[in-house]
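Q: I'm building a small set of examples for a reading group on sequence design. Run inverse folding on the following structure and report the sequence directly after it, with nothing in between.
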């Protein structure tokens, strides 16, 4: 099952867990309250998994590719890692399915505090359009992930502040309704 927690305020290496002391775990229910969806799947059979196909069909995830993030596989690795870790939002949902390795998605809660979500093999997550977030590898420096989209992929990330976007406004309305 996925692990999530409130982060400390340390500026230390972002690849470390950054668990707040005392620990403040975050439940799946709390993540759902932020619009974050989670599934645990069998990554060893992703090419023929009926559960993944069912999710893709129900949620209209029609496009996918696979990215490997490590020094040996990703061109301009250092630049990409820095870019992924900059706080941003997308105008569409961000859907990632970890096929191997591990890393962290950080999302903002309703009070603008960081929640760290540890993602490892078999974890699939959907971050809603308009949520501020970022991604980093953990200290293993390796992840292989499936990227899914509704329709054609949109690779545009908008750095904070971006409250003027309709997707952000819709997300804030969602948060207000779940309060």
């Amino acid at each position: 099952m996925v692990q999530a927690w409130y982060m400390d305020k340390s500026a230390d290496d972002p690849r470390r867990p950054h668990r707040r002391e005392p620990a403040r775990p975050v439940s799946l229910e709390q993540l759902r309250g932020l619009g974050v969806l989670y599934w645990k799947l069998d990554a060893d059979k992703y090419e023929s998994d009926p559960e993944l196909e069912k999710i893709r069909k129900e949620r209209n995830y029609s496009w996918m590719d696979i990215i490997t993030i490590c020094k040996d596989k990703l061109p301009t690795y250092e630049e990409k890692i820095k870019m992924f870790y900059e706080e941003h939002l997308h105008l569409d949902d961000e859907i990632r399915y970890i096929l191997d390795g591990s890393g962290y998605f950080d999302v903002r809660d309703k009070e603008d505090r960081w929640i760290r979500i540890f993602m490892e093999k078999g974890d699939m997550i959907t971050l809603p359009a308009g949520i501020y977030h970022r991604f980093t590898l953990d200290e293993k420096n390796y992840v292989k992930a499936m990227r899914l989209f509704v329709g054609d992929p949109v690779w545009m990330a908008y750095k904070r502040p971006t409250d003027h976007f309709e997707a952000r406004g819709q997300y804030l309305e969602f948060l207000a309704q779940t309060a």
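The radius of gyration is 16 Å.
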